[in-house]
Design goal:
Elements: E1 45-47, E2 77-78, H1 81-95, E3 109-114, H2 132-145, H3 151-162, H4 168-183, H5 186-191, H6 193-203, E4 208-215, E5 221-229, H7 231-240, E6 244-251, E7 259-266, E8 272-280, H8 285-299, E9 308-311, H9 315-324, E10 329-332, H10 334-344, H11 348-359, H12 363-376, H13 378-385, H14 409-417, H15 426-448, H16 457-466, E11 474-479, E12 482-487, E13 490-495, E14 500-501, H17 505-509, H18 514-522, H19 537-543, E15 636-637, H20 638-644, H21 649-654, E16 674-676, E17 684-686, E18 691-692
Parallel strand pairs: 6-9, 9-10, 15-18
Antiparallel strand pairs: 1-3, 2-3, 4-5, 5-8, 6-7, 7-8, 11-12, 12-13, 13-14, 16-17
Length: 709
């Protein structure tokens, strides 16, 4: 048999980019698809306990035959009972026959007799015969190439292929069994994490890999965290990327419980450049500090000097950055700040002023916008000022980073790139990320070879966007390469020799602003010559000049002497796992959650609860007491009816109610079928209603019952 021959039912490849015998389980025909308990009795096939061959036949069952061609034959031998069961179930499903088994104890069985003529009607439901394991073993190939297939589509596929009807719950169990077959059990992945780390060291020398385990009191080792930074990635970042890193954590969706921490840079074309990633049990300060300490050593930034990190509002991450990288500039993602700001201060006016303050490049402009916000709402002004404006407004960003970003878009983009990998088991996920990054590095290097311009294409497009309205600015030369750019009431100083503009946008972004572009065209110079060297094609090439080296399959991984760790002990949270990212309040689209307003029981204000309240205690306003039950039809006070709006002023006059008489309750005779028109409501008819006037003059005679029209 040639080496490249593979039987369809023996070897299954789960991913086109991942072909590993450990990560994609090999399926052999002796795979036990049935349990040990046999509960059925066979009416069609008689199984004899006699071990002697029938008619001297030595025919052995071939389990590699197509399922719909399998047919038990007289004298055929089966090495295991599961083989016979598999053959019989395939046979009856293909022809729609009913089947029952009787319990067997022998391991080697042989068919003694068989009836081939049947007069029964075709069955479309087989109950426990068609188990989730049986379905998974027959549909594993389809699920491999379409792991996101919906349950309804899977049920239709089963109905079309096997002509059987299954419930949605059984389809769900079958899909789960198939994914376990494809990806292996979680314990298998964690058990080989040490071997995987050793293979990375062997294939990619200079890479940093750390595995953390917890030793529990029971003496067993449990997986804690895993960090990897390939030598090619950290070398490329140091050689060609700006000193800007986005930090973020995202949840894992599949068998692996925990979070994925990532450090993402920006290449010369303003695209995602992965540096390192780690799997941890939880996103907290301790894990972030461990991650940042390893990152600091890999990229060679001591205490963060000259480095800018962009992060969200996670408290543990912020505190870890201040401790590990005290000299680094940290920027908070403005979108996260606005998401929290919007909860208390909604409206287009607040939104426009917030983003105007974020986009200000000079401090006087920022102060002016914030004063406008303060005039509208002092609370909104104080909220934003309490969140350190130097971390989210361009007016206070450092000028030598060639990056004016105030959002952590690179991290969000990378998380979206690996969303499918985050649903996989541990080693499968890590391999999918590695292969994706390895392929990306090679693709980017080859892409750069096709560029002819010395500046990256995305930067040229951004330069054109900046200079769209340069004709609206008049340029007045001052001499020595210094100009003044004016437009209506605005004026800025431009120094082409120092690459400086008083608006600070050129210094922040590394790309000439509209004022500088107007001065360059006035001086007959090319704006592309004034773009920062960080955006050159040569820097882009240096970033991807070092390639990730390929790794062997799991059968060739080095064997390490460490004890195999067990999967981490995770808590069972209520509800099922969420597959989609939860959107913030500031994002477009429905987040899927029901909105409600929280009221504080301490200060009686909205927008926060008692636990986080910092305001003085305020007594709640007393609520009016509600009457228990409904008004009695036997006796209704006039005051109650007046308060409820059932008695108008005209009715009150007819009833003789006055304020200058002594109050005395008088029982009136019962009125039948009293009809009256209340003020502000539709006409109401009430039966057997007794009215008691509010006051009756002494000595007067109560009024006779009347019908009100």
């Amino acid at each position: 048999m040639p080496m490249d021959y593979e039987r369809e039912k023996v070897i299954v490849v789960s991913f086109q980019s991942v072909n590993d015998p450990f990560l994609t389980k090999l399926f052999e025909d002796e795979f036990e698809i049935f349990g040990e308990k046999d509960e059925y009795v066979d009416d069609l096939v008689h199984l004899d306990d006699d071990e002697n061959d029938i008619g001297g036949s030595n025919y052995v069952h071939d389990p590699t035959i197509e399922w719909n061609l399998m047919e038990p034959k007289v004298g055929e031998k089966y090495q295991k009972i599961s083989q016979l069961k598999n053959c019989l179930i395939n046979y009856v499903v293909a022809h729609g026959y009913p089947l029952r088994f009787e319990k067997l104890e022998k391991r080697i069985v042989q068919v003694k007799s068989m009836k081939k003529k049947h007069s029964c009607s075709r069955k479309f439901t087989f109950g426990h015969l068609v188990s989730p394991q049986w379905i998974a073993s027959h549909l594993v190939k389809e699920i491999v190439f379409n792991p996101s297939i919906k349950l309804k589509e899977l049920r239709e596929l089963i109905k079309t292929k096997f002509k059987i009807t299954l419930s949605i719950s059984k389809c769900n169990r079958a899909k789960h069994k198939a994914m376990v077959m494809i990806e292996g059990k979680a314990s298998d992945h964690y058990a080989r994490i040490w071997d995987y780390a050793a293979e990375i060291h062997r294939s990619n020398p200079g890479s940093t890999v750390q595995v953390g385990v917890n030793l529990n009191p029971d003496g067993k080792h449990y997986f804690h965290r895993f960090y990897v930074c390939f030598h090619a990635l950290k070398t490329g970042w140091i050689a060609g990327c700006r000193r800007v890193i986005g930090l973020d954590g995202c949840f894992l969706k599949g068998q692996v419980k925990g979070q994925l921490l990532t450090a993402i840079g920006k290449d010369a074309n303003n695209q995602v450049y992965p540096i390192c990633w780690a799997v941890v049990d939880i996103e907290n300060k301790q894990n972030w500090k461990w991650f940042l300490e390893l990152l600091r050593e890999d990229v060679g930034v001591e205490e963060g000097g000259g480095l800018t990190v962009i992060l969200d509002q996670h408290n543990g991450l912020l505190e870890a950055v201040k401790e590990v990288l005290p000299n680094a500039e940290y920027r908070q993602c403005a979108r996260h700040i606005y998401a929290n700001f919007k909860k208390s201060y909604k409206g287009e006016e607040y939104k426009d002023l917030f983003w105007a303050a974020v986009g200000c490049t000079v401090e006087p402009e920022f102060i002016y916008v914030m004063e406008r916000l303060k005039a509208i709402n002092v609370g909104a002004y104080e909220y934003l000022m309490s969140h350190n404006p130097s971390s989210w407004s361009r007016a206070y960003f450092c000028q030598d980073r060639a990056c004016e970003a105030f959002e952590n878009g690179v991290s969000e983009s990378f998380n979206a790139m690996i969303v499918d990998a985050r649903k996989r088991p541990l080693l499968t996920m890590l391999e999918m990320i590695r292969l994706s990054v390895m392929e990306r590095v090679s693709f980017m290097y080859n892409l750069q070879q096709t560029w002819e311009a010395p500046i990256c294409p995305a930067i040229i497009t951004k330069l054109e966007t900046f200079g769209e309205h340069y004709r609206s600015w008049s340029v007045i030369p001052s001499g020595g390469g210094i100009f003044e750019a004016r437009s209506t009431y605005e004026s800025y100083c431009v120094d082409l020799q120092s690459w400086y503009c008083s608006c600070r946008q050129w210094e922040l972004s590394g790309i000439p602003c509209v004022h500088a572009i107007a001065a360059m065209f006035y001086n007959q110079q090319n704006p592309e010559d004034f773009i920062s060297p960080w955006f050159s094609s040569e820097r882009f090439k240096e970033s991807y000049a070092t390639f990730l080296q390929p790794m062997n399959g799991s059968n060739l991984w080095p064997t390490t002497p460490y004890e195999n760790p067990l999967p981490p002990m995770s808590r069972r949270m209520p509800g099922g796992p969420t597959m989609n990212r939860k959107k913030h309040a500031g994002e477009k689209g429905d987040s899927g959650s029901r909105k409600r307003t929280v009221k504080c029981n301490n200060c009686q204000e909205f927008g926060h609860n008692k636990k986080s309240c910092k305001n003085p205690t305020k007594e709640p306003e007393p609520k009016p007491k509600k009457k228990i039950g409904r008004l009695s039809v036997e006796k209704i006070e006039v005051a109650d009816l007046k308060e409820s709006g059932y008695i108008s002023q005209e009715i009150e006059e007819l009833m003789g109610t006055r304020d200058d008489v002594t109050q005395e309750t008088v029982q009136l005779p019962t009125m039948d079928d009293v009809t009256f028109e209340a003020q502000g409501i539709e006409e109401t008819q009430m039966d057997d209603v007794t009215f008691v006037p509010e006051t009756v003059a002494p000595g007067s005679t109560p009024a006779e019952p009347m019908t009100l029209d």
